[in-house]
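Re: that backbone. Tokens:
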């Protein structure tokens, strides 16, 4: 594929500075691009490469100067990069059809244009919309429903009763509808509580590799429209996640917690159960959340604090040993002063 800068600028609502007729055949990183590549600069720490990049053109945001090569100027270079990369590398769907080595039980409904590769299994009562792709090893349980144009990579498990919207993408090894971790203590030990709810996912959801979304104990675990969940994330039973929230790798969310819409949850964070996180919350990586968080704010740390407060705490931590010594010194001086005052009082008496 080859495109002119003029065509690409129109795609991203940008403007060309320099020769708009220059043509490129793909995108590359700013330090590895060649003359046939378009590159981009979104992170200021890579600005030094503008002076040496071999790219044929570069995508830049406002206020970043470059007169060596043509520029596509736009408000959000990273978004522009994503849109152009999708143009050059569209998702390629395999040819429609059911491989003879796939298993489709009687009573399953398979929509037009679906692709079921060898080793895929669709249980009785399951429903696949149109143009759904199941790679080898995928399992779709009884009564599960998968919306149009959804794409399941190898070894994805969609258990019984799960309902997925349209255009969902499940990366390899994702498990949707596993049993929640529910037990009651008895005289004989932990007694398993049947997990009889389901999972309800909206449209345009993406679940990362080896992520686990547990089914509800009663009622559903709910994943809103446009939610993006990274690899190795654990979502426990009856969690509710609002539309367009992003959760990055290795996050754990305990049961019955509600996360609002438009949140961004940093990697390796841990979120307690039965709490509420408001809309638009940003949570820094490796945060611990023991209680409710108000919407529209940035939090960090363990336990999570508003970001400004957390920065003050972190700035203080390296000084704690010194401060401890100062406090001990002050205590000794105070004790000496009190002893001296006591001695003086006795003498005067």
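Recovered sequence:
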């Amino acid at each position: 594929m080859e495109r002119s800068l003029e065509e690409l600028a129109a795609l991203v609502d940008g403007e060309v500075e320099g020769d708009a007729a220059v043509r490129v055949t793909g995108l590359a990183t700013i330090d590895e691009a060649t003359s046939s590549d378009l590159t981009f600069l979104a992170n200021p720490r890579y600005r030094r490469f503008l002076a040496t990049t071999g790219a044929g053109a570069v995508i830049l945001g406002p206020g970043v100067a470059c007169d060596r090569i043509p520029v596509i100027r736009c408000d959000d270079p990273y978004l522009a990069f994503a849109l152009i990369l999708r143009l050059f590398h569209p998702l390629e769907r395999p040819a429609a059809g059911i491989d003879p080595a796939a298993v489709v039980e009687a009573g399953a409904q398979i929509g037009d244009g679906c692709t079921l590769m060898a080793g895929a299994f669709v249980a009785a009562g399951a429903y696949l919309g149109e143009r759904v792709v199941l790679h080898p090893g995928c399992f779709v349980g009884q009564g599960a429903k998968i919306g149009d144009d959804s794409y399941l990579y190898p070894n994805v498990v969609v258990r019984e009763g799960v309902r997925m919207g349209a255009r969902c993408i499940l990366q390899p090894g994702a498990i949707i509808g596993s049993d929640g971790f529910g037990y009651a203590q008895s005289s004989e030990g932990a007694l398993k509580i049947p997990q009889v709810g389901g999972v309800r996912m909206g449209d345009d959801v993406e679940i990362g590799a080896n992520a686990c979304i547990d089914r509800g104990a009663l009622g559903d675990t709910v994943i809103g429209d446009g939610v993006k969940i990274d690899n190795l994330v654990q979502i426990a039973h009856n969690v509710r996640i609002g539309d367009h929230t992003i959760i990055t790798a290795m996050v754990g969310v305990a049961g019955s917690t509600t996360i609002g819409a438009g949140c961004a949850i940093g990697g390796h964070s841990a979120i307690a159960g039965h709490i509420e996180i408001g809309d638009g919350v940003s949570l820094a990586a490796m945060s611990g959340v023991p209680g409710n968080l108000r919407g529209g704010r940035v939090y960090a740390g363990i336990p999570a604090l508003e970001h400004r407060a957390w920065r003050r705490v972190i700035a203080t931590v390296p000084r704690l040993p010194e401060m401890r010594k100062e406090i001990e010194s002050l205590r000794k001086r105070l004790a000496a002063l009190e002893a001296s005052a006591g001695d003086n009082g006795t003498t005067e008496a």
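The chain has three domains: 3-88, 97-309, 318-348. Residues 17 and 71 are 5 Å apart (CA to CA).
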